[in-house]
Specification:
Blueprint: H1 2-7, E1 14-18, E2 23-31, E3 35-40, E4 47-50, E5 54-58, E6 64-66, H2 73-77, H3 80-86, H4 89-96, E7 99-102, E8 106-109, E9 112-113, H5 116-132, E10 138-139, H6 142-151, H7 164-171, E11 175-193, E12 197-201, E13 207-211, E14 215-232, E15 237-244, H8 253-262
Parallel strand pairs: 7-10, 7-11, 8-11
Antiparallel strand pairs: 1-2, 1-5, 2-3, 3-4, 5-6, 8-9, 11-14, 12-13, 14-15
Helix pairs in contact: 5-8
Length: about 270
């Protein structure tokens, strides 16, 4: 009677652990050559589970039967750790430190964008001045900067799709100098000389007549405005100023550029 009573006690469920991590709780009805017949607890529908999908079965009695060993996922994850470390920003930040790139300047003449060559000319003039007053900073030559931009597919049209942080990372610098020159014609200055005639006697006492002529010249005046900004590799503007040129000549931007650079945080006497 004791044995019969023990056999009639409800048994524990079987648990199938699959290779993908799923656990199936119920009863194993039969183990075949290629699959296992199984029904969920409280249900009567029979399922066939492939042996190749099963890691192990823990029977209600406590016995464990292993069918497949788990896949060695750590072997694949091992090389990923150093890859993450190598792409961490610490090394890049050290490489960027105190490096400065000057972008080709924007140049607008009478409301229209000028040729790229004009903006690159201002870029070169900016580089020449900053190189003389670089101090601890390393100023990238414009040719190097422009070559790296071309390799990255960045030009005047596409650069608007990049943040200054992106540009710093592309160029491998800590700071980027960005500028815009706006040049507009204004008035003209006209100077005029009058003509006339004069009479005088020569050494022989004869009258001599000398003719004089009038002519005029005109000089075109310009109004120049220059905007200059410096960004760090976090995309933050550390300097952002603009100034209207004092002189009205076509090349007045040169003095204005030097004026702004002298007041920037990258200038060293």
């Amino acid at each position: 009677m004791t044995l019969i009573t023990f056999a009639q006690q409800p048994g524990k469920n079987d648990v199938i652990l699959k290779l993908d991590g799923d656990e199936l709780t119920g009863k194993v009805l039969k183990i075949n050559d290629g699959d296992v017949e199984f029904t969920y607890a409280g249900e009567t529908l029979v399922y066939n589970i492939k042996k190749t999908d099963i890691m192990k079965i823990t029977f209600g009695s406590g016995r464990i039967q292993v069918f497949n060993k788990p896949q060695q996922a750590p072997a694949q994850s091992q090389p990923q750790a150093p890859a993450t470390q190598s792409s961490a920003p610490q090394g890049n930040l050290e490489d960027h430190h105190n490096k400065v790139a000057i972008l080709p300047f924007g140049f607008i003449r009478d409301g229209l964008p000028a040729d790229d060559a004009v903006g690159e000319q201002v870029q070169n003039e900016c580089y020449a001045f900053m190189s003389k007053h670089a101090g601890v900073y390393t100023i990238l030559p414009p040719r190097t900067t422009n070559a790296q931009l071309i390799k990255a597919g960045i030009n005047r049209q596409t650069i608007k799709g990049y943040t200054m942080e992106d540009i710093c990372n592309v160029l491998g610098v800590e700071y980027v100098v960005d500028g815009l020159v706006t040049l507009n014609k204004t008035t003209q200055t006209v100077s005029q000389s009058n003509s006339g005639s004069t009479k005088s006697k020569d050494d022989d006492g004869k009258d001599r007549k000398y003719n004089s002529y009038s002519y005029g010249t005109s000089t075109q005046n310009f109004q120049t405005k220059l905007s200059l900004a410096i960004y760090n590799d976090k995309g933050t503007a550390v300097y952002d100023h603009d100034r209207t040129a004092f002189f009205n000549t076509q090349d007045a931007y040169t003095n204005t550029l030097e004026y702004l650079l002298k007041r920037s945080p990258l200038y060293t006497k």
